[in-house]
Amino acid sequence: MRLSNKLVKLTAAVACVFALSSIGALAATKPQQHKERATIKEVDVNQHQLVVAGPKDPGPRRLQWNDKTQFTENGKKVPPSAVKAGERADLAYTMNNGMPVVKSVKLSPARKHSKHPTTSHSKYKLG
Are 65 and 82 in contact (CB under 8 A)? Predict the structure, then answer.
């Protein structure tokens, strides 16, 4: 009977260690990083927030940035104050307590639309 009791206690201890190690492994996993191309709608430098709209989710969304967020334009580091509404950006962010936290912002100029439509580049001409 003593051997059986010791075996039960040992099995319970092993199960507890396994359960605790599994919880620790889950807590240590990195949050999933998301990437998207979006248009900057608003910039709030004081609150460290961007409002963006993207092709997958055209409605405006608010994203937070922090001191670790990297802002670049043409491969060069720029300050957050360089971000302007209307610019397009490649964003990388993770979710933190339900709020997207931006890891990197790669700026590219907004598309410029010509006042005059260009002629067709088709090699086939009508008429």
Answer: no
